[in-house]
Amino acid sequence: MARCSAAVAASFVVSTLLLIWSCWHIHTSSGAPWAISGSHTSLYVRSLEASVDMPLDADVFQVPPGFNAPQQVHITQGDYFGKAVIVSWITPYEVESPNVYYGTDKENYSLTAMAELTTTYTAYNYTSGFIHHCTLDNLEYNTTYYYKLGEGNVMREFSFTTPPECGPDMPYTFGLIGDLGQTADSNATVEHYVQSKGQTVLLVGDCSYADKYPFYDNNRWDTWGRFIERSAAYQPWLWTPGNHDIESGPTFGEFNEFKSYMHRLQTPYMASQSTSPLWYAIQRGPAYIISLSSYSSFVTYSPQYQWLKAELLKVDRTKTPWLIVMMHVPLYNSNCHHYLEGEAMRSVFEAWFVEYKVDIVFAGHVHAYERSHPVSNVLFNLTNDACQPIFNEDAPTYVVIGDGGNVEGLAVPYMEPQPEYSAFREASFGHGLLDIMNRTHALFSWHRNQDGLSVVADSAWLNNQYWKSSSRMQI
Ligand SMILES: *[C@@H]1O[C@H](CO)[C@@H](O)[C@H](O)[C@H]1NC(C)=O
Ligand SMILES: *[C@@H]1O[C@H](CO)[C@@H](O)[C@H](O)[C@H]1NC(C)=O
Ligand SMILES: *[C@@H]1O[C@H](CO)[C@@H](O)[C@H](O)[C@H]1NC(C)=O
Ligand SMILES: *[C@@H]1O[C@H](CO)[C@@H](O)[C@H](O)[C@H]1NC(C)=O
Ligand SMILES: *[C@@H]1O[C@H](CO)[C@@H](O)[C@H](O)[C@H]1NC(C)=O
Ligand SMILES: *[C@@H]1O[C@H](CO)[C@@H](O)[C@H](O)[C@H]1NC(C)=O
Q1: For a FRET experiment, which of 13, 34, 66, 368 has its CA 20 to 30 Å from that of 136?
Q2: What is its EC number (predicted)?
Q3: 3-class secondary structure, 34
Q4: Given ligand 2 and candidates 104, 107, 110, which is best to mutate, with the most ligand atoms within 8 Å of its CB?
Q5: What is the pLDDT of residue 33?
Q6: CA end-to-end distance (rounded Å), the chain
Q7: Contact (CB, 8 A) for 40 and 15
Q8: What is the tens place of the pLDDT at every residue in 158-190?
């Protein structure tokens, strides 16, 4: 099922031989059942261009014309089921109008909503503009809305389409982006994504990388906000916190964590009874999406632990068959970077992921791409010493997609030999698409930046973990 394509014919031949060899090798050495589809390390080697942030005067950072014009416009889901959208934007100098004018007819913006929150913050010697968050609720499903921000000659117009009502056979395509940053590679990732059929972005943490600058120069959050607008103003981006979003700087008097992240990026966390914007769940079309915080406590009895335990009980797979989890630090990763860093969370949550038959777990953090076979490692206890991942039909597929293109560059090398749980891995920048067809089938694909827009560098069909059982198919 794993597919591979190499950049040039010669390396394709070599990689095919490697694939055959690795299948044979795993099959004969361990007889592990997932050896049938093989484990593969791509031999594609991308050019080693320098990974630097785009300059402050880059075209994608342009401030929209006109005094105090709304900028950094982005939207996210605003409720539990997809009938609300939170519109966020920044006016640099004045509050101006806190209104969003919207409607289903481009000529007739019949509805008005007022921002429920306008805020500013300081970070070292940086002072933010006025950050507005406005919820548009009671929207119709599967409907295109047009919306306008600002007044008079600085008015700007955008649009978005609401998802279909939650239901088992609603096709829907999610985009996966991680560790994005703001380099030319980030720009290529966003550009390729914009041209894809993705309808909602799941961003698995690490946004602007402003923390790479002295005193975490938050002007780089503003450039980032303007950079992603060409996608994020038109479709929801769902946020997950990453380590570069923490921005705690006690040496220069910054004691708050996630200050910029939480002021700028909204999540509808209260709709799922979460006590923190850093972890939450939503339902959207055929999917139930759970976003976790790798950087908040998850030990037994912590708020995040208690919340997830209760949230998993609410999932109704007859309504939302696809159960998706996202987080920043991967639970399975065979890159030398951040190797085994997710073990603490894995030991707490993995058994639930298996018990509740999570379909797919997306993570970032590692600046490369990797897809696992369905594996679990939940048998270990102090007496049995059973600490190797094993093939497990009920276990999720784990995808590392921290390859958005940030200033830190790609993560190499990989652990050798490739662990048997790893199906495909490659250190290149790109994005992923989860194309949900119906209750039983979804196609996950990974698109590497160096290829043409439509080229798929890796893909796998996912058989829904709940509906694949033949007894359920007869219902
Ligand atoms: C970013 O990508 C867009 C779309 O390809 C392009 O028009 C723009 O010039 C790029 N900007 C930079 C700074 O690379
Ligand atoms: C604008 O939309 C509102 C509400 O849908 C409707 O009542 C009104 O007639 C529309 N106006 C025009 C000029 O189409
Ligand atoms: C903030 O501090 C940095 C470093 O000292 C300096 O370069 C920058 O000009 C200051 N910015 C403002 C707005 O004062
Ligand atoms: C969504 O709307 C489009 C066109 O308005 C229609 O063709 C499609 O069937 C609708 N989908 C759902 C799931 O209702
Ligand atoms: C440890 O694992 C073994 C084998 O799965 C099991 O029989 C035993 O009950 C476990 N011990 C504890 C303390 O959970
Ligand atoms: C679900 O989609 C897959 C892939 O397109 C297709 O083969 C299968 O027949 C579909 N199943 C149903 C029940 O429609």
Answers
A1: 66
A2: 3.1.3.2
A3: helix
A4: 110
A5: 36
A6: 27
A7: yes
A8: 999 999 999 999 999 999 999 999 999 999 999
Residue 240: closest CA among 179, 301, 286, 162: 179
Reported residue count of the chain is 475
Q: Which of 133, 338, 367, 431 is catalytic?
A: 338
Distance (angstroms) between ligand 1 centre and the Cα of 201 equals 20
The residue whose two tokens read 């007819």 is 105
Cα of 275 vs centre of ligand 1, distance in Å, is 39
Longest CA–CA span in the chain (Å) reads 72
Quickly list H helices, 334-458: 343-355
**How far apart (Å, rounded) are the C-alpha atoms in residues 475 and 169?**
14
Whole-angstrom distance, CA of residue 76 vs CA of residue 90: 15
Count CA atoms closer than 13 A to 260's CA, side-chain side: 32
Tell which one of 104, 108, 112, 140 to mutate to probe ligand 2, the residue whose CB is within 8 A of the most ligand atoms. Answer: 108
To 5 degrees, how large is the angle CA 403–CA 407–CA 410? 40
pLDDT of residue 340: 96
Verify whether residue 244 is a known catalytic residue.
no
Rounded-to-integer distance, Cα 108 and Cα 139, Å: 16
Atom 1 of ligand 3, nearest CA residue: 125
CB 335 within 8 A of CB 425: yes
Helix, strand or coil, per DSSP, at residue 299: coil
CA distances from 380 to 134, 387, 419 (A): 47, 5, 18
Alpha-carbon distances of 314 from 273, 325, 371, 472, rounded to whole Å: 11, 14, 28, 19
Low-confidence ranges of the chain (pLDDT < 50): 1-36, 474-475
pLDDT of residue 473: 57
Which parts of 138-282 fold into alpha helices (H)?
184-194, 219-232, 259-264
CB 370 within 8 Å of CB 415? no
Pair of tokens at residue 72: 């950094």
Pairing type for strands 375-376 and 369-372 reads: unpaired
Residue 285 dihedral angles phi and psi, to the nearest 5°: 55, -120
Phi, psi angles (nearest 5°) of residue 419: -60, 155
Predicted confidence at residue 22, as pLDDT, reads 34
* Nearest listed ligand to the Cα of residue 381: 5
Element (H, E) at 200: strand 200-203
- Token pair for 16: 């095919």
- Residue 43: the pLDDT is 72
- The predicted pLDDT at position 107 comes to 86
269's tokens: 């966390």
> Model's pTM, two decimal places?
0.91
Name which of 421, 430, 437, 420 is nearest 457 in CA terms: 430
Q: Report pLDDT for 454.
A: 76
Tokens of 192: 């390729």
User: Is 87:109 a contact under the CB 8 Å cutoff?
Assistant: no
